[in-house]
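ingest -> validate -> predict -> emit
validate: passed (alphabet ok, no gaps, 217 aa)
predict: started
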Amino acid sequence: MSDLFSPLVEHAIETAAEWHDGTYRKGRWTDSCIDTDDVGRVPTMAHVTTVALTVQRAGWNDHAVAAAFLHDALEDGNRHRESLSRDALVARVGERVVRIVEAVSEPKTDLEGVPLPWRARKEAYLERLASGPVEAAAVSLADKLHNAYAMSSSLEAGIDIFCDGPNRRGLSAGAQHQRWFFVAVLDVSRRHPDDRLVWMRRRLEGEVQRFEGAAGL
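emit:
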């Protein structure tokens, strides 16, 4: 019987919870569990936890699960707009996990610090994913599955996810561009023959079809 407790995953959870504390998803489709006059926002930690559980349920190892908890840590700043350095993350969870995280992180700016357009960021992401380890494909599929699920659920609830609203930021790209990215991630993941990726791809393919219907594509 394998060890039920993983210090590596615990360190990843602690790091992710600390880093993403006070940051939120762009929108939500579910009702808030707190009594507030404002539209409650979904903490980023809910997303990374869903991604990590999906990776774990698919049978991946602790390094992949840890990377799933941290998959947005290098890419996204914290609530103070600080960036987490690679060295700091390696010190917490090790080189192997960080290599997976790097392969699923998109650059936000060019070498001069100029913000990159949405398409350029996604193309750079796909290049990193293609040359990354197989665990990165698993984390990416789980991430896109949850994103597609959230988008479809929001659209079916009558929420225009492509426009700003109360406590909600519209997505940076339209429905056709989002579908292109989902399909591109699926295509890149097929470079790896690992059987654990098969059902993950099938589940994402089904969610992409749902998104197409919800978005009127």
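The two ends are 47 Å apart (CA to CA).
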